[in-house]
## 1
Amino acid sequence: MQLVLASKECETPTAVSLEAAIQHCLAASAQSIFILATDADGWDKDRVDPVLQAVKVPLFGGIFPRIIVAGECRSQGTLVLGLAFSCDVVILDSLSTLNSATVERCLLSAESELSNAKTIITLIDGLANNIELLTECLYDNLGRGTAMFGGGCGSLSFERQPALFSNRGLIADAAVLAAFDIRHSAGVRHGWEILDGPYLVTGSTANILSTLNYVPAYEVYRAEVERHSTLRFAEQDFFEIAKNYPLGILGPDGDIVVRDPLRAEGNNLICVGEIPQNTTVYILESDRQRLVNSAADAAAYAINSCRKDNRNDSANVTTVIFDCISRCLFMGESFHEELEAIIAQLDPESIAFGALTIGEISTSRNGAIHLLNKSTVIAVF
Amino acid sequence: MKNTLQLISIQHELGMAIGLNLLLRPMLKHFSRVCMRRLGLAEIHAYFYSSERQTVNLSVQADDELLTSFLNLPVTEFGLDQSIINDTFSKLRAANSSYSVHQRTPSANTDSEYVYFFNLGDFGLLSLHRMQQPLDQTILNLLVPIVQRLTVSCQASIEHEQLLQAIAARDKAEQQIRFQLNHDELTQLPNRRLLLKHLQTAIDHAAATEKMGAVLFVDLDRFKSVNDTLGHAVGDALLCAVANALVSVVGRKHFVGRLSGDEFVVILTPERCSDADAKVCLRKILQQVQQVFILPIKANEHLLQITPSIGVEFYPQVAMDADAVLRNADAAMYIAKSRGPNQFVIYDRSMSEELERRLEIEKQLQVDVKRCDQFYLVYQPQYTDAGTCVGAEVLVRWYHADCSPAVFILVAEETGLILELGFWILTEACNHLREMEVRGIIDNDFEKLSVNVSAVQFNQPRFVEEVIGIINATGVSANLLGIELTESALIKNTEDMVTKIARLSALGIHISIDDFGTGYSSLAYLSRFPVDSLKIDQVFVRDLHSDAGNRAVVETIIALGQSLGISIVAEGVETEEEKRALVQAGCMLFQGYLFSRPLAHQDFVTLLENGSGAVSAIPNLSGSR
């Protein structure tokens, strides 16, 4: 399916350049605008808002640590895509302070925009709280007929800044839902395997892990990682070690949802995403090749699903990649191999773009929507 | 070991997710969300016996009652058909099984769906839906005790909610009873009980804070006519409209209640001000209240021009409770009413004396009506413009020293004593008429002797029989007798009225409509009843020669009479100018002081014996009835 009618990279990170890129897409009769920008471009509301507010078609997008343009990872630059389909853009503000009732009220008020959507590209402030509450409420209210994918925007500096593009301008602490009436096929993999465990989560609150097997979580984590490696937490930055040994929540079928420990606060581990109490967790490990293979698997699964659904028009396949920034940090210089492995699965004629995200979002095989870490999400239209 | 820990953790997490809320739906929703996440479910549904109001029952209320969907996650999915649900439920109960499994594969390209049914005791069913892969048997086994625990929690929640509903229903019923106890059913305004309570509180507060308030006792003028002529439904609608208007005009700051019938009370909240200021405030509110009645008030399809009589009493007064303040306001209202429509009067002590006098009249009247020798009749002659006496209107007088007919007849009507008094008047008038017939002093010019009959009397079921009885007993010629009815007696316009009038008319009795033009009636009844004459009320006759409005009314009535062949009698003609104007308008018959004052029986006989002419009027007479 030809999702993209036109695309244009901003020549410089200026309002004039952004406006020119948008106008280029609109001239190609784009029905909606999707913007992928890098944090390094330093977009701010003063520059961006007047340009975005002047756009008359639905507009959405985000600022990410890095973006993927034509199969390449870029740490600088902004890509404007003119899409062939219109969409309804729904914004949920104040994400960090929402509760279940307020999310449901917001979704109910946006029912007409969301209820018939087949695909929702979900972009969130990756540093906000309540992301899993949002994904849970989205599934509760929209059901199995709507598939979602997306990721978390923001900066690797972990400073909270407006990072979501919308017709209202650049916004923060929000979720932007772009609802399309077209289907996609998704493949999701992470490539991480069990190193040690299981551990019973005996103390946790949201994304703060306090105790494992009734022992302080950081003590357990440090002891086991140091037992399996030569790395020492006393000698190195916490995340420099932790990016190699994420935690994994075991599902009923043996599948694992990865949780990245970002930092240690006292004896607590602060993770990206919730770790519910009484779940079973493992310490995971991987290597470059396993991650590259998993990314290729994700792409292959998405392509095959698309073919199975008879939606494969190979000449016009559009692939959207949301890959976790911490995979890039883990692989370092070799990260291009992962992107090459993904592109290798795709038809040479197809268009591929995306971003490296702070947390990934995807509908799971059973229908529920999950917040993922250290994962690759491939969506094929 | 690895698997065991996972199973324990699942069992623990699901177990801890039960019963976190006392209410059924949030309790189940929380459990379901944890269950979906932990077991990788696509859907979860709960089914119960529930009424239309989503009240869940623990047992079947009717033989054909079925389980219905109570909770769906996601909300967009509705689970399986009701027949499958109820069939599965029955089978599970019959087999005493903990759960059953259904596998569905809707089409070749879609994933298999595994549905696990668990009975929630005897009152519900839980279905867990999983895509692609079935749940492991060990997980199913651990779910059995979890669901048993969930069942206990559901039962507790249902019983808790039923208890809450019972309490809420009882609260509502109690509130309703309390409301009914303190409010008027028709207008929903506070009733006497609440009003007195509020007034007492206001009096106490005013006394404690040295403020001054006032009570307005509002009574609608001639409301009874509305009920009598247009029916109680219109009367009720009018009361509601007045209630709403009063509430809107005095606002939330003050208090409006309905005592009974057409009696409303407005309690003006105490203000910190001097007597003079209080009276200025009162005048302002009074004007606002009276403003309500300036335009016609809509009651059902009718637009009714109604006026209030208002009595006012200030509070607090020394050693005076709510009953006393209200009684004084009532007394002032009564005085206002006696002064004519749309009046207000502020209470002073003399008014209580006047009321006491009225009670005294009532008491004396009750005694005298039994004896009847305390009353006598006088005759108001009726003339042609040529000065020929053609009859008279019979009027009753009471020997009671200082009580006018206007007062004692009103009291007689209000107390029902008019029935006995009316019977006596009719009998006495027929006796006199018979006597005049026997003496041969009634010539061809004499048409009739007219007796006023009150609406109360006329509406008695056996009124016609009474009249026939009197005619038979006295031997009077019925065609010399006339009956004067007010509009309010006639305008019910029921078949019963038509029959009564027709029977009287068939006897030869003349029927006149008294005080014509002052009622609420439509003119339609004139064509239904065999009316012989209309009497133009003296209000319209007054200054007829110079009052264009009155002239227009009179001319209309006369034209109406002419077109229907009904004779017209003008009442209360006092000047030559009025008479000339009436003649010019086409009126042929008159009564009033210009022609003659009311005459004692013997004087009237003399008048007839002499043919016609001036006869000295009897002294000490006032009023015209």
## 2
Amino acid sequence: MSGINDFAFKMGTVNGTGSASANGLLMQAIFRMGIPVTGKNIFPSNIQGLPTWYEIRVSKDGYTARPSEVDLVVALNPATYAKDVATVRPGGYLLYDSSWPLDPTLVREGITILGVPFGRMCVEAFTKDRERTLLRNIAYAGALAALLEIDMQVIEGMLNEKFGKKKSLLDANHTAIRLGYDYAKANFTCPLPFHLAPMDATGGSILMDGNTACALGAVYAGATVGAWYPITPATAMMEAFKAFCEKYRVDKATGKNNYIILQAEDELAAAGIVIGAAWAGARAFTNTSGPGISLMQEFIGLAYYTDIPAVFYDIQRCGPSTGMPTRTQQADLLSLAYASHGDTKHLVLFPADPHECFSMSVEAFDLAERFQTPVFVASDLDIGMNDWMIPRLEWDDAYRPDRGKVLDAAALEKLPRFSRFLDVDGDGVAARTLPGVGGKGAYFVRGSGHDKHAAYTEDSDAYQEVVDRLKRKFEHAAAAMPKPAILRRKGAEVGLVTLGGCDAAVREAADRLQEAGIAADVMRIRGFPFGAEVAEFLGEHEHTFVIEQNRDAQLRSLLMIELGVPRDELIPVLDYGGMPLTAKVVVDAVSARVAGVPA
Amino acid sequence: MTSIAKPPVKHPSSRQNGIGLTLRDYEGVMSTLCAGCGHDSITASIVQAAWEMELEPHRVGKMSGIGCSSKTTAYFMKQSHGFNSVHGRMPSVTSGAAAANGGLTYIGVSGDGDSLSIGVGQLCHAIRRNVNMLYMLENNGVYGLTKGQFSASADIGSTSKKGEANEQAPIDPILLALSLGATYVARSFSGDKRQLVPIIKAGIAHKGFALVDVISPCVTFNDHEGSTKSYAYTRQHEVEAVEADYVPLRREITMPETKGAVTVVQMHDGSSVRLRPTAPDYDPTDRESAYAHVRACQARGEIATGLLFVSEGARDMHELARTVPTPLVDVPFEALCPGQAALDKLMARYR
């Protein structure tokens, strides 16, 4: 890195002081300059006063993974000075607030230290305390605009869009941005050696987070019932669903809502509401994170055993128990795949970015109804809460929901008898009826032992017949799950297997490895159960690495359990500290092993 | 074995209701509860009430959790759609079903274990949400299926079959519901069909959450001397606050002449419930006096029964959520999906 349109910078601030909007402004301005950009918000589980960072990576080649190193750090939080100064790459830059004397912890050999008196300038320019605090952030954005050559017209245009209707706020923001910009111009050699130059590489893209995209997918899929209990990092999804529904789902004739959102008393109730609504025939979903999935286990088993479609979004976060709620991980894979007691197996989708969150959100509802079973969308905090540069979302107006096998009154009329769990087609999916239908359609859903006619049973054969059908259904679903995304290189002896948000870092790593003379194929798994393509890929390479963000190699376990791949044939590459994956982690792990150097 | 079918024999004298169904049409499979179980009497009252109300069986959702009481949804209305869910979670499943299809009648059946221990949170929040449903709490003070442990409704001093006395304070579902703002609160006794049937009917007609706590002695584990949920104890200590008569819409009102002022509460569907206080100063539309009455009875070791409180004006879950009058399951996809043009327009916001 470190060149024109190829560098990374990071802001270290205190949460709750307004830095998020300044950071968002910087990222969006770069995006509008046509330059590929990524932003990672690394924030505390706290409302005000703890350290927070925002990393922005600019990549003319379109790499969107978290940067492996940082060229410039803006250190505005004395509590993290030592940590922040240490992350600057050798030869990089540090920007600090010189309203106060240079703190000795900020001094480091081999980097350039730039001081701007942000605090003092804001105290002089503004009168209210709140303004002085908030606008200090806009002032540093101004200094960065000068140092990195961010187009001031773009920034000022964005301020006009944002504050156009509030004259005093608008003026204050313009003043603040100029304070920083003018100071940097007057006192430093601008721009720095690495900086921006306008491109035309973002025209077909948008900046969106995965929670928003999942919510939009649920709206487009026709979901009418959303039930939830607030939890980081899933909360924003239901907030987005609500906002989209208020925009698109208010009946024009009556002014009434074509949707209902129920904030439940806990995750158990949220799952119960979804299952009740789905039984009644609605497309229903809940959004949660790992702790919520733990609480929903019993209900998930009920839906599985009674063939009820339900969509669960798991925006994964870090750790067992409460863990680190504002850090990312892919550590719910096993608990999703086999959620609940007894013999259970579930359909899971693994979106890699917000673009796929949108499409898989729709797909989840189709799969759930087609296979009459719970479907999980396994997103994570990094995908869910960070803005990603993704292709514009598209929609086919010809789409109609796949409601699966549902018998209406007319269809029931033709049947001699309705048996709810009778596998007529051999695919394990039995036709269902919806409450309200008359004639023979009524049946009794029960989580207790039941036979294929939905009657209570304690008979071994009758019980096994039902659970064997569920297994058959699961096996049939494998072919309907999204195919893995496979990228091949000529003569590759290395296979990189990954899933979800690791995708960007793994693809970047494959490019780096290629430069180092190691050709690697990449397979990104997109759904569970695994299709035939996944099994094929696993046998193709001399070295197969499985890259994932958890401690226990959960994806590797699933591959071993479900496909019977020997343990030694899959080399785990595990990153589970809670930060989005960098290409460096993958490159280091692979090159150490392939070059024969002990890792 | 809750799937034992009853022989489909029609008694020649079985009367048809207004939609051509007999009482037998509202029955379910054979009960597998103990002979003499109070729950079976309640089931019979539900059957009677549904028949009298001329409910279309397929337009009814029978909802339950886990326990002896929850099994009973299989014993009535076999042509209705049933959902026997997980322990203590029937209120959330019913909330979801009612959210998706508010056009059906939901009859929930639960017990004191299901409702007051594992499910007390869900009960409270279904009341707060004001889900449009009848909630039958078949209350026997004991865990039957697991053979006789105290439930959270067991009174202090009440003894188990083995003679052990309960020392923890009971949760009274009536006081709980009153304090949470429930809009229909009644208590009855499984052995008193005359009182129970009109209470069930009015509860079904009530728009919103209707809690009916029914003392239902457990003949096997809690019908002995020392139990405060036995037949004998309940018969001796019952104090009826009001006599209720449910008057459906379309029926001529023919009420026997009675002493005392009758309160007529108009239900949302045009039917009405007529309440005749047996205590001279009892006002079943006043939450405070209902609360005071139940507390006063409790202090005297008595059980307040009857339709203790009713308020027909409150907004139910759908009104609170301002949903369309059409059940959400019947809203066409075209009205739900914004389409490509809207998406194109929306994309500008993410530039």
